[in-house]
Specification:
The protein has 367 residues and is largely without helices or strands. The chain is 10% helix and 4% strand. The chain has five helices and eight strands; from the N terminus they run αββααβββββαβα. The strands form four sheets. A two-stranded antiparallel ribbon has the order 1-2. Strands 3-8 form a two-stranded antiparallel ribbon. The radius of gyration is 23 Å and the shape is globular.
Length: 367
């Protein structure tokens, strides 16, 4: 080897050594190999370009023609050999789900799956990817399961991450306020669209706002408009403004009494919306007259909600999240993992009578 060749190789090796640590790709400009800021991938502020909501989408949105984010997931000449339809886009992993779990793997309780295990709690139920070809309550004619559904995102045409989420934040639902507080710097949760597609795979409808209609894009047998349903859920056909964030909640109690209100405070960061108060005779009151519950009033993060018995709710059942996800055992809810995993079966908020009495007064005999 000549001295000139050795010098060139040494210089090339030095460049590689400098570039490798820079895995955080900023939205624009040139990657600085000496500095890779967390915000480049994760984001900490709200950014809007041409009116497009790109709140905390990290590497998933806010792309310009000069973006350098692509190599975080894609490799033109070094992509893995795809084993099925779930890896079509020069990914550095064999499947889309594998790519997602490169970051969202539950390590330290920060991912989509594994948050419970990281805190010493075994999950009872999961909204599983790469494991199912069946939609519970997916048949609108019977309210039963719809089997043999063809998905796009998972192994062997099973459910995958991209069946519900858009990794590039394209055609996603409107942002909403949820319960999730993943990191210590979140003082009160945050508003995001969760990268949810307006039209999930295997759906024949487009929904722009998250709520019962979004869930029923796949779980068609659960809406009150279905021919036969396993339990009636609210729909925009009868309540066009009802969705997750607009659902009218019960007022916070001055002592223990709760009353219905028309305030559109929604379900996010609030436990009172899970209770549907009555007038003591089984009749709904306030803004909830004539309405069914949203899917999320029964299926959400595990928490203590209260019940409609004499319109009572205890202060111990108020929404309380004081620290990063799962670290404080006294938080209510402690974990913010819906809809991916849960301590309860069927991803239920509560179970048995505790669930039913959120809406049904056990002291009233209904006709």
């Amino acid at each position: 080897m000549t001295s000139r060749t050795a010098i060139v190789l040494a210089a090339f090796a030095a460049v590689l050594a400098a570039v490798v640590p820079a895995f955080a790709y900023p939205a624009t400009g040139t990657v600085d190999p000496s500095y890779a800021a967390c915000v480049d991938c994760h984001g900490t502020t709200t950014v809007s370009i041409a009116g497009t909501d790109t709140e905390r989408q990290g590497p998933h949105g806010n792309y310009l023609t000069s973006t350098t984010k692509c190599p975080a997931c894609h490799n033109t000449h070094g992509a893995d050999t795809p084993t099925n339809i779930s890896s079509p886009s020069l990914l550095v992993t064999a499947t889309v789900t594998d790519m997602c779990e490169t970051c969202h793997d539950g390590t330290g309780g920060q991912g989509v799956y594994g948050t419970l295990l990281a805190r010493g709690v075994y999950p009872v139920s999961k909204h599983r990817v790469d494991a199912t070809r069946t939609i519970p309550g997916g048949d609108p004619s019977t309210g039963g399961d719809l089997t043999g559904v063809v998905f796009e995102g998972g192994v062997n045409m099973t459910l995958g991450c991209i069946d519900c989420h858009s990794p590039h934040n394209k055609s996603t639902v409107a942002s909403f306020t949820g319960d999730r507080r993943r990191i210590a710097t979140d003082t009160a949760g945050y508003t995001s669209n969760r990268l949810l597609k307006q039209r999930p795979t295997s759906s024949d409808v487009t929904v722009t706002r998250y709520g019962s209609n979004w869930c029923a894009a796949c779980h068609k047998g659960s809406l009150n408009t279905a021919t036969t349903h396993n339990h009636p859920s609210e729909t925009t056909a009868t309540a066009p403004n009802y969705f997750y964030q607009d659902y009218p909640r019960a007022n916070a109690p001055s002592s223990t009494a709760i009353v219905a209100t028309s305030v559109a405070a929604g379900l996010g960061q609030n436990n009172y919306a899970y209770v549907m108060p009555t007038d003591g005779s089984g009749n709904r009151i306030g803004a909830q007259v004539g309405h069914y519950p949203l899917c999320q009033q029964c299926h959400e993060d595990v928490r203590n909600v209260g019940d409609v018995l004499q319109g009572q709710i205890g202060w111990a059942e108020t929404y309380t999240v004081t620290s990063a996800d799962g670290t404080n055992t006294a938080d209510n809810p402690r974990f913010q993992v819906f809809p991916h995993e849960s301590q309860n079966p069927l991803l239920l908020v509560e179970t048995e009578d505790d669930l039913c009495t959120n809406c049904h007064d056990p002291m009233v005999i209904l006709p």
